[in-house]
Design brief:
heterodimer, A: 146 residues, Aldehyde Oxidoreductase, domain 3, B: alpha+beta, Ubiquitin-like (UB roll), five-stranded mixed sheet, 5 strands
């Protein structure tokens, strides 16, 4: 399951999507809208995605995880639109026979998501300022983008 | 040839549109799209190093060749550095 949605995320969706009888571990991760950035009070966040490419890149991350750990049960959902503090912006779950690989693969999935999945966040602060942020971009001059 | 160009985040705001059709000469590469946009946004060369682009949902380089019907996107980075 690789999905961009404008609806609230239910964490159990990614968990159910990866459940399997041979998986002794499911490692979920939830990204939550934080109330500050470097101490500056956040009013709300707005996420924007390039949906077709984002879902394709999520699938690519899952293939990388399969190559590295042999795990084939990966789910990722990212929400777009306006989100309030405390809401879930992203949910990832990975099922693995044992927890060690699950933890590593889940961290890898989030790191890669921030690098290659085209999603932007607009932070709007309580003091009225705002900025667009694309976490951990990979630049033209680093030809490892894909 | 005609390509579709899509704008996101700070680029969407800068060009004040989500997407457009762009007519380009045969043999055009991604850099030609940026050159075209330079008329509207003369500072765009300052961002060549940090701007990512894609062709048909894959990251591409300035020299990637384009074909009729391709979907090109400008994928701007962290925007603290881009004044709009």
């Amino acid at each position: 399951m690789f999905k961009i949605t404008n609806q609230p995320i239910a964490p159990e969706d990614v968990i159910h999507a990866v459940k399997a009888e041979n998986a002794g571990a499911i490692v979920p991760f939830l990204g939550i809208v934080r109330d500050n950035t470097g101490g500056r009070k956040v009013s709300y966040l707005e996420y924007e995605a390039y949906p077709q490419m984002a879902e394709m890149k999520m699938g690519e991350i899952a293939r990388e995880i399969f190559e590295k750990w042999g795990l084939d049960r990966v789910a990722m959902i990212h929400r777009i639109g306006r989100l309030k503090i405390g809401e879930i912006s992203v949910a990832v779950a990975i099922a693995a026979p044992h927890r060690k690989d699950g933890f590593e693969a889940c961290k890898y999935a989030m790191d890669r998501l921030k690098q290659i999945v085209p999603i932007w966040k607009r932070e709007v602060w309580e003091d009225g300022g705002e900025t667009w942020v694309k976490p951990d971009p990979v630049y033209f001059n680093q030809k490892t983008a894909t | 040839m005609k390509v579709k160009v899509k704008y996101f985040a700070v680029c969407r705001e800068m060009f004040n549109r989500d997407e457009e059709e762009m007519e380009l000469p045969d043999g055009a590469v991604l850099m030609d799209v940026l050159k075209r946009l330079e008329r509207e946004w003369p500072e765009i060369p300052e961002y060549y190093e940090v701007m990512q682009m894609s062709v048909n949902w894959e990251y591409a380089t300035e020299q990637t060749e384009l074909s009729d019907g391709d979907e090109v996107a400008l994928i701007p980075p962290v925007t603290g550095g881009i004044d709009v």
